[in-house]
Amino acid sequence: MTNISAVVVDGLQVRRGGREVLRGVTFEVPRGTVTGLLGPSGCGKTTLMRCVVGVQIVHAGKVSVLGQPAGSAKLRTRIGYATQSPAVYIDLTVREAEILRLLTAGSTNKEIAARLVLSIHTIERHLQNAYRKIGVRNRADAAAYAVRATI
Questions:
Q1: 70 CB contacts (<8 Å, ≥6 apart)?
Q2: What is the percent of the chain with per-residue pLDDT over 70, rounded to a whole number?
């Protein structure tokens, strides 16, 4: 077994809207540990988590998860992220939200079907329902919606 840390953040800097929201953040989370992230509203917890899962633009520094750059394709099936607001997809079923999450992570319908042990037809039906509920017409718009919804 390798000794690679679960998460390594080194000199992380994030700017949003021209404002620096994370400055020089450095830490390491060893494998096999449970780590909490606490702080007041607006201190950057969600932004930091978005960096760890690879959906936040990083101005400077490095973030790696399980030895891979945050957001890399190899990590998409190994890590998950639950937003602070469970109402992000208030009208979606749990299945539709999970399929949308996998779609946003870059999975194909075939990969989603295999992972969830469902037929491709069932995946397509759930996607069409989700598209209708969130008001989009296609896969790219749905992925963009999902990324915006977690901001």
A1: 51, 52, 53, 54, 63, 64
A2: 91
